[in-house]
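for the recovery benchmark. tokens below, seq after
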């Protein structure tokens, strides 16, 4: 049976880089945020319910969910966030399960940005891996890559679980601050060796 790893980390922590490295080592990576984006892209399965719940003004000119507008509403209105989650979470869950059942790799990684906040994932995975860094590093990375203001990034960080809360749920923590991708890879391979009882080799799979 495949080892099931729940991967999480705050915005700007480098979680996506860790997920890509794990995929390069042969893991099947299921990205719940990517699933969410597909569900809300033009023609996505979540859009009819979104339009009904929030109004046609939340669908942009391309036919996709207006994500910045929805993000602003969800941050400002907890009830709106609950309505959004009630639409998306069952659809994301069904697609996640489908992909997990289809995966043939010895390690399946569930990339879940809000794993700790959801409260549902601990019992679904064998191990929780948290990618951690200083909040100042999170903010610097997101501002550099997205063009958001520092205040906008801080607002997102404030909505997410704290570093302490994520670390408390972790079976292992990768501290991704002040290291390069090569060192990150060394740490991940050592962790996989520990968890899988056999060191993966880059390009050779798990």
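predicted aa per position
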């Amino acid at each position: 049976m495949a080892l099931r790893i729940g991967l999480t980390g705050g915005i700007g922590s480098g979680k996506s880089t860790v997920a890509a490295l794990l995929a390069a080592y042969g893991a099947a990576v299921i990205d719940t945020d990517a699933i969410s984006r597909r569900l809300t892209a033009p023609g996505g399965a979540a859009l009819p319910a979104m339009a009904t719940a929030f109004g046609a003004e939340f669908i942009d000119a391309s036919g996709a969910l207006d994500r910045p507008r929805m993000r602003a509403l969800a941050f400002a209105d907890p009830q709106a966030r609950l309505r959004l989650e009630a639409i998306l979470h069952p659809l994301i869950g069904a697609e996640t399960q489908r992909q997990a059942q289809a995966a043939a790799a010895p390690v399946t990684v569930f990339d879940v940005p809000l794993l700790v906040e959801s409260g549902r994932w601990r019992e679904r995975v064998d191990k929780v891996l948290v990618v951690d860094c200083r909040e100042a590093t999170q903010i610097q990375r997101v501002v550099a890559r997205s063009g958001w203001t520092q205040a906008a990034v801080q607002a997102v960080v404030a909505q997410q679980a704290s570093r302490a809360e994520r670390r408390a749920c972790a079976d292992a923590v990768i501290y991704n601050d002040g290291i390069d991708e090569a060192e990150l890879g060394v740490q991940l391979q050592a962790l996989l060796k520990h968890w899988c009882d056999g060191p993966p080799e880059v390009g050779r799979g798990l």
